[in-house]
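User: Can you predict the 3D structure for this chain?
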Amino acid sequence: MFTNSSGTIGAYILSTKINNKVEFIGVYPPPHIYTVDASSNVFTSINHGFQNDDQVQFYTTDSLPAGLSEGVAYYIISADTNTFKVSLTSGGSAVDITDAGTGTQYFLFSN
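Assistant: Here is the predicted structure, written as structure tokens:
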């Protein structure tokens, strides 16, 4: 368990990979589902609750958006209520997303 920069408690994750795809067994709190606009690098997740400098990791049921890697901690930047971008460094420039990926896309607090 861990805490984000706003004091919110993060998640425990139980997952496994089957045929190189993540299968969630259990997560508390539940993962956030998102979409991403590859032309603007903007992620959308309604009422995501994250703030700038929170760290997240991305998972998928199929393929991640190009530009992201599973298991890498990314920093939230340009956060508002429903949208954000991500960076590899705190306060850094946005990761260039070149396609939206396929399958259901999830993100969680990173420890």
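The two ends are 8 Å apart (CA to CA). Residues 1-12 have pLDDT under 50 and may be disordered.
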